[in-house]
Amino acid sequence: MGKKYLYLFEEGNATMRDLLGGKGANLAEMTGLGMPVPQGFTISTEACTRYYEDGEQIADDIRSDILEYITKLEAKTGKKFGDIENPLLVSVRSGARASMPGMMDTILNLGLNETVTEAFAKKTNNPRFAWDSYRRFIQMYSDVVMEVSKAHFEKLITDLKAKRGVESDTDLTAEDLKELADQFKAEYKESTGDDFPTEAKDQLFGAIKAVFRSWDNERAIIYRRMNDIPSSWGTAVNVQSMVFGNMGETSGTGVAFSRNPSTGEKGLYGEYLMNAQGEDVVAGVRTPVPIGKLEEQNPEVYEQFKTIVSTLENHYRDMQDMEFTIEEGKLYMLQTRNGKRTAAAALKVATDLVDEGMISEKEAVLMIDPRVLDAVLHPQFDAAALKSAKPIGTGLPASPGAATGEVVFTAEAAVKAANDGAKNIILVRLETSPEDIEGMHVSKGILTARGGMTSHAAVVARGMGTCCVSGLGAIKFSEDETSFTLGGKTFKAGDSISLDGTTGNVYEGLIATVDASISGEFKRLMDWADSYRTMKVRTNADTPADAANARRFGAEGIGLCRTEHMFFEPDRIAAIREMIVADSVEQREAALEKLLPMQRGDFEGIYEAMSGLPVTVRLLDPPLHEFLPTDPDDIAALAKEMNISLENLNAKIASLHEFNPMMGHRGCRLDVTYPEIGVMQTRAIIEAAINVKTAHPDWDLVPEIMIPLVGDVKELAFVKNIVKTTADAIIEEAGIDLPYLVGTMIEIPRAALTADEIATEAEFFSFGTNDLTQMTFGFSRDDAGSFLDAYYANKIYESDPFAKLDQNGVGKLVETAVKLGKQTRPDIKLGICGEHGGDPSSVDFCYKAGLAYVSCSPFRVPIARLAAAQSALNDK
Amino acid sequence: MGKKYLYLFEEGNATMRDLLGGKGANLAEMTGLGMPVPQGFTISTEACTRYYEDGEQIADDIRSDILEYITKLEAKTGKKFGDIENPLLVSVRSGARASMPGMMDTILNLGLNETVTEAFAKKTNNPRFAWDSYRRFIQMYSDVVMEVSKAHFEKLITDLKAKRGVESDTDLTAEDLKELADQFKAEYKESTGDDFPTEAKDQLFGAIKAVFRSWDNERAIIYRRMNDIPSSWGTAVNVQSMVFGNMGETSGTGVAFSRNPSTGEKGLYGEYLMNAQGEDVVAGVRTPVPIGKLEEQNPEVYEQFKTIVSTLENHYRDMQDMEFTIEEGKLYMLQTRNGKRTAAAALKVATDLVDEGMISEKEAVLMIDPRVLDAVLHPQFDAAALKSAKPIGTGLPASPGAATGEVVFTAEAAVKAANDGAKNIILVRLETSPEDIEGMHVSKGILTARGGMTSHAAVVARGMGTCCVSGLGAIKFSEDETSFTLGGKTFKAGDSISLDGTTGNVYEGLIATVDASISGEFKRLMDWADSYRTMKVRTNADTPADAANARRFGAEGIGLCRTEHMFFEPDRIAAIREMIVADSVEQREAALEKLLPMQRGDFEGIYEAMSGLPVTVRLLDPPLHEFLPTDPDDIAALAKEMNISLENLNAKIASLHEFNPMMGHRGCRLDVTYPEIGVMQTRAIIEAAINVKTAHPDWDLVPEIMIPLVGDVKELAFVKNIVKTTADAIIEEAGIDLPYLVGTMIEIPRAALTADEIATEAEFFSFGTNDLTQMTFGFSRDDAGSFLDAYYANKIYESDPFAKLDQNGVGKLVETAVKLGKQTRPDIKLGICGEHGGDPSSVDFCYKAGLAYVSCSPFRVPIARLAAAQSALNDK
Questions:
Q1: pLDDT tens digits along B480-492
Q2: Were A568 and a residue from A165, A434, B859, B867 both cysteine, which residue would form a disulfide, CB within 3.0 to 4.6 Å?
């Protein structure tokens, strides 16, 4: 006997979601609960996988299984495919493990042909209903199964209405609809070259194939990538005998939630239409009425429905989203599922269910998708306002939230506009650089044409909690960069646009937004999460303000303080440039001497903000040329300011040129060549710590000095020696007891491969998974945009490895480094400070890999806290 | 009892080289053979390691051991340190495992002070000799131990000779020399601030420390890096009682070889000086006489020496290089070692020793350092001419051999000069690019200011066998690039320079060269090597000419044919640019259609040249912008040629800009985005194979198509599908039986980490260790020059990871990939095509890792053959 691919609803249950898909499993569960579910069967997700394995064909064994189950369904319902007396009509719907809006939804009324319709008209004594059902079926089948454009059919309807001189579809008679069905079939033949199928079985196989195919359409692929759904899952297909909400005034159809999906308020919420099929509710031609009205129209059915809703919510122990149909006064349940909800509703429902005793605190913590927290921490578009807006382009969702405002093209213009009182500024750039920081700060949203999820714009925007869409390659700037075109429109400075940093969508004009609102439920839930969490959550913060912000979000330390981000302030950039241009150690030391008090001040501020929580400071990382101007005018100005010849300065800049700056003279390599930089930074870190510790002797202040870009234990030892010699001398002179740690980023593959050696010197490892991902994959995040789309389209990559840690490759290096590091130094402190620290699936990987903490940008701290709690709970 | 750090000569033997160093082990061995060796002891290399571990201090336990051994030596010789009757005088010499010219050589006459000298004068009845010995000791000790400049002492001698009105040192009297000794001591005090040590033990500890220190001076570090000697080895110190060749006319000293070190001819070869110390022979003030003369001067000693030489050669079974001293008619042996020899001599000695029955063929194969073969394959500087030349700069030894000629600054100028009949052209560039190929071809040598050992210039030059020095950062070009300065001199076009691609040295003017000469011995030795070798040796060749050349050197196939190198020919670059600029698939296909016949022709030529040996062709690898011009004039010309607007072309070029081209849109990523490129290349490869196979049905032609830069099995599968679909259709249409393989480079860390998955698709792996090294270390070979010097100087790296495979990091990835690859596909074909394929230690690693072949540039094929033979022999 072959594999079982098909299941009657009565053969399944809710635990079989992987096999039957969400919809199928729940139809089975409701059937088991004795609820009024039209009978049917589910073709499993494994059949979908077979379909693709077999070269997009339904294998013969599955075909004959399907025919066998149709026979079973015929026996159960007493109806028959193509039968004139009592025809079996079915709906066909897709249903994956996870709900997927990108896929085919539904085909209704399958099984009709001209003869059957004729008979159906007689049987129901309602010819108009019968012919309307038939023309709807042809229309739906043509569109969904054969991809014949809907517009063709709409035109035929409009033409006929004009001919008849009527306004509304409902004014068309049974005869009209029959004529329309003929015209539709002719259109079908013209578009596809084939006759419209009259055999119910042919129609069925066509529909099933269409469902399987829809698993792999572009929208579905994009949705899966955005939601971490593997393409190997496949979709199930549900074949269910039809019930009709459009059989007259005692029939109807509707959708309802057991609680309000926007607010989470308890109570039945939904709407329905009498004498209608599902599509009418959705299409918006007629206005549905609130579900409460049903109590007046049919109190018996209303009571029955309320009981079912309550049973389902109690059974599933979560808010339900249901579809139902009333056929001539009799209620049928067509679907139930855990309802989608806004972030605010998710928090309210979870806490309410705990208060109602329906679920435990643990279950509440596990119930919330950590990613939705973004929405309660950032402004969002008003849902109603967004409904009518069409995106003019879609970039990468680089930093979540919504922003709406007027375009500026330079950081300077942004600052000027802000000084002039402008509140809503959208900074649009080819790409941003550290010099743009101030302008980014005053902007509500940032849009760039280049750069990935971890480009400068993306990282900085996330740190500030500012909405950002990056890498929107479709933007074309005018040569003088005073305008850009997108979606066929040209935008100049002052024009309005809106950005959705959560989806990457960009809209023309101003769209209303609603502010972030952190509710009491948020705090309750996060407190529960923290009580189960075992892994620490730190933040990546470079300034006292960032650090303070992150503490509000629950950060338990700083995992990455990037010292270079402090260097771009106007009062510092001059000194750093002086250092770069220096020709001798003495000149360089003189310039560093100017930077010392500023850096020390920065660190004091950060230590103060963190009140003794651990702070990891990374020594200077980027290549020095990043601090030099590139524009000829700016270079000339700098030469003047520095009092050196333009020729000398140009020669210096040329000598710093790099082919591949990512893999160039940066990180610890700077300290090997210019030890005085490491000396200055160590002094600033340690002197600041001494000052703060003196002011707060009770704080447990242990600075963690992190040496970046290490690939060999000897280079770590070399730089560590600079750090220790400097630090120990200062500490001894101060006569204070100040423990400190020296560790390294693990961000170069070689460091992971030789972590046993590295750990002889490193007192902690912090996985820099941004760079580690770049090196392991061999591509630069700034350049990958040119080919990644093709990789997604061809399903080579299913997710962005810079957003979701590649466990198969990069993860192996992390695991190797953890193992080797602990081998040498069992108590080594392990953490992650790459962008992945704020991604739930990556947080889970870090938990399983045995890391002590994750560190992420301030606004992601709550996400990481919740994700870490879920990992700990799931581990039990 | 502590560790044993000291050994009397009689306690050691030749097998203890690791501990006693080469010199010490051989002195011990000669002692054991009963030869006349002045007694002494060796301080082991472990004492040197201790010295560094203890913070550059001689530990107390070793100090007391040394004093104990001095007492033993005193007892053996009957002499005593500081004794007026019979003073013990010693020499102190360094001696590492491997001979190292960068280290301290010798201090003689240690133990003398004023009182002892006085007594010594009486005892020897030769006051002039005694005072001369003393002043020499002061001079040597000051220079070597305390780094007081020699010039100071030379000036004092010159002044005294002027005062006395004499010409020669030998005209100075005993009194003069005594006065000089006083002046020297005063100079010593002035330079060092201390009195010259009078205690023999203080002198001894000073000298021992100087030897230890010299292990780590800059010259020694550079020498070690160039010769793969780890810094952990340390040096031994030999303390030996003095014998004097300058005691009068029956005394003398000399050096001799058991065979001629230049030619390998059998027979005693060397020179000596009577009444002299070793330094006199070297200094060249007096002219030494040929060793044969000794037969007349002292036939008894000559016979004794000849017997010793013969015994030693038979004992060591290799040509010996010896030092001896005759003290008042008595012969003493001071050193023996296997003699350094030219490459030609090495081959002759090895084959002669086989013919003489002294060694086996296997031993002959193991005797030759594979790296010396470079010298017999390339022109070299005439040794005599080179002696008087001083390098004006030193770059990287990028491609071996010597070249001398006139400077040109552009590839065009090189071509023009060649057309005008110039024979000796030296192309000097900031860096080379593929456009320079033709100019490089006509040049005798190539010098670049930028780029590492695997830069474009280096790779291409090695392929052509042309001398190249790369990455000479000290070169400063004038702004208009019509001249450069180096070593304080300015060079214009037409000025003469000479390059040594084996050392990296650059000289002013023309230096005579001797041509490469492949001898009969070379062939004999390579045949022996091949008979023991188990690993195949292929070559990296991109043209039929390269391929033919490599076959002459014994290549057994092509491991890497880089298709892009064919694209720069003037007739192709237009088509490739047309393809890049194309806006649609159709335009791109049209341009590719033009390239197809040319590529097919290339491959036909290569298959023909290889007569059915395996040929691995790599699909297009570099990012497309490498093929576009960068100069504004060239861009304008191209726009005109392509008949597109300058604005459009500039926009296209801008859109191809990459921040990190190394990690950008290249390799298989090109085929994913533009499958039509892969289709065209596959067609060319397969159609050419069909044509050649049709002409030579007996050839076993199996094209190997290699997909570069793979990081994920899915991208390999995607491109492989393009290749197979195309190839299978062509083969089927041709109705021919043509097997072919599809495999991949392993050059991205992720590919190595997931090699089990990759091997499900790949039929072979070729390790691209250039890129793998870059990604694993996280630095770009083109940019590393700015910091690598600091890494070498600080002993962080001891060798260039692009020249010698990093077994600890990159090697781990190779081993992982081999293991995982074989796990999935036990018969997977494994090779290496990175530059490391021609480096002996890396070849040995490949052998141990289980690779089936190495592939390297044509001129390195013999090196790889010999190295692979040695690996196989050493494995037994």
A1: 888 999 988 999 9
A2: A434
Chain B nearest CA to A572, separation (Å): 25
Burial of residue A266, with CB atoms counted within 10 A of its CB: 0-12 exposed, 13-18 middle, 19 or more buried: middle
Give the CA dihedral B3, B9, B12, B18, nearest 10 degrees: 70
Cβ pair B90, B240 in contact under 8 A: yes
Burial class (CB in 10 A: 0-12, 13-18, 19+), A744: buried
List the alpha helices (DSSP H) in A398-494: 411-419, 437-442, 456-464
Closest-CA residue of B relative to A449 is: B655
Q: Give all strands (DSSP E) within A630-699, no chain letters.
A: none
pTM (predicted TM-score) = 0.83
Which has the minimum average pLDDT: A349-353, A792-796, B263-267, B400-404? A792-796
With contacts defined as CB-CB under 8 Å, which chain B residues touch A753?
776, 808-809, 812-813
Q: Which residue of chain B is at minimal alpha-carbon distance from A798?
A: B714
| pLDDT band, residue A784 (cuts 50/70/90) | confident
The shortest CB-CB distance from A663 to any of B778, B790, B809 is to: B778
> B761 CB near a chain A CB, below 8 Å?
no
Q: What pLDDT was estimated at residue B483?
A: 92
With an 8 Å Cβ cutoff, are B786 and A665 in contact? Answer: yes
Surface of A (476-495) touching B: CB under 8 A: 479
Tens of pLDDT, residue by residue over B696-707, are 999 999 999 999
Print burial letters for B144-167: b (CB count within 10 Å at least 16), e (below 16): bbeebeeebbeebbeebbeeeeee
3-state DSSP assignment of residue A43:
strand
Residue of A nearest to B651 (CA): A479
Q: Is B402 helix (H, G, I), strand (E, B) or coil?
A: strand
Contact yes or no for B673 and A750 at CB 8 A: no
Instruction: Report, as an integer, the average pLDDT of A852-865.
Output: 95
d(CA B660, CA A783): 7
Residues above pLDDT 90, as percent of chain B: 71
Q: Which of A821, A43, A17, A785 has its CA nearest to residue A430?
A: A785
- Which positions in chain B touch A660 (Cβ < 8 Å)? 660-663, 780, 782-783
Question: How far apart are the C-alpha atoms of A372 and A359, rounded to whole Å?
Answer: 20
Cβ contact, residue pair B660, A782, below 8 Å: yes
- The whole-angstrom separation of Cα A489 and Cα A475 is 10
Q: Could A776 and B754 be called an inter-chain contact, meaning their C-beta atoms sit closer than 8 Å?
A: no
CB-based contact B450:B782 (threshold 8 Å): yes
On the 0-12 / 13-18 / 19+ scale of CB atoms within 10 A, B473 is: middle
Please indicate whether, in this complex, the C-beta atoms of A711 and B662 are within 8 angstroms of each other: no
A867: left (phi over 0), alpha (psi -120 to 50) or beta: alpha
Which residues in chain B (621-680) have CB-CB distances under 8 A to chain A?
647, 658-665, 669, 672-673
Which A-chain residues 681-710 have CB contacts (< 8 A) with chain B?
709
**Residue B773: closest CA among chain A residues belongs to which residue?**
A750
Q: How confident is the model at residue B372 (pLDDT cuts 50, 70, 90)?
A: confident
Determine whether the interchain pair A754/B808 forms a contact, defined as Cβ–Cβ distance below 8 Å: yes
Distance CA A186, CA A188 (A): 5
The alpha carbon of residue B580 is apart from the nearest alpha carbon of chain A, in Å, by: 14
Euclidean distance between CA atoms B437 and B411, whole angstroms: 8
Q: Supply the DSSP string of B175-191, one letter for each residue.
A: HHHHHHHHHHHHHHHHH
Statement: residue B284 has pLDDT above 80 = no
Q: Which residues of B touch A715 (CB under 8 A)?
A: 791, 796
- Residue B64, C-beta contacts closer than 8 angstroms, at least 6 positions apart: none
